[in-house]
Amino acid sequence: MTYLIVLFSLYAVLTGMANIEVQDRHKRLLLNDPDVINSRLVNLEKSMQDMVRLNQQVQTMQSTIGQLQTALLNDRGSTYIRWGRKQCSGVNTEILYTGFAAGQEYHNSNYIGGPANMLCLPNNPELSNRTAPGSSFLFGTEYENGNFFANGAQDEDVPCALCRSANTSATIMIPGRITCDGGWKMEYHGILASGGYGQKPSSYICLDSHPEFLQAGKDDKNGRLLYATGTKCGSLACPPYVDNMAINCVVCSK
């Protein structure tokens, strides 16, 4: 019985070794087969072509992303009104329109209400065909304070321009300064102006330091009036401020 078990085990070992030898011979034949080699070369070439196409697609995507980023940066821009001038100033700044500074009438003894802010009306309006009810009006704006703003400014009409500063996302007006902080671009500087304290409420605007006048606008019609804004010490800290001094202003973009 033991002899049979030994013979059977020896037969199994020999059979297994024979199978391994056959498989190994088959592999060697496949490796030396020209058809197999050619097939592998074809597959390798195809894989390389696929990698080249994938790399080209990645480069195209990167280029497209770069173009989109550039377009987004170039499309950025912030707007501001340059009060007292017909044109814009500064680097990479374009004018959207020029027009007339306008607002509510400075004084009316019968009416004390109405809006306080000022508007820059374009000089090429698209007019409606409807009559207004008569509850709110826009008047042109005139310089006051004699020659304070500029020589001969008294009663001249005030121009304005809507400007766009490219590659910026914010524009601010800083009262009390004529320079911008680091990283900000100065658009223009001037004098803080508003309506008079004995008149209807008004917004503060930054009037350009070198104001212009509207052509044929010198006529004392007293619509909206502009005065230089000064300081009043007391509740306002002095120093750093000084009593009864005109306030500078600057418009900055970033």
UniProtKB/TrEMBL annotation:
Organism encoding this protein: Mytilus coruscus (Sea mussel)
Signal sequence segment: 1-18
Protein name: Uncharacterized protein
UniProt keyword Signal present: yes
Keywords: Signal
Cellular component terms per the entry's GO annotation: extracellular space
Keyword Signal found: yes
PANTHER family: PULMONARY SURFACTANT-ASSOCIATED PROTEIN A, SHORT-CHAIN COLLAGEN C4-LIKE
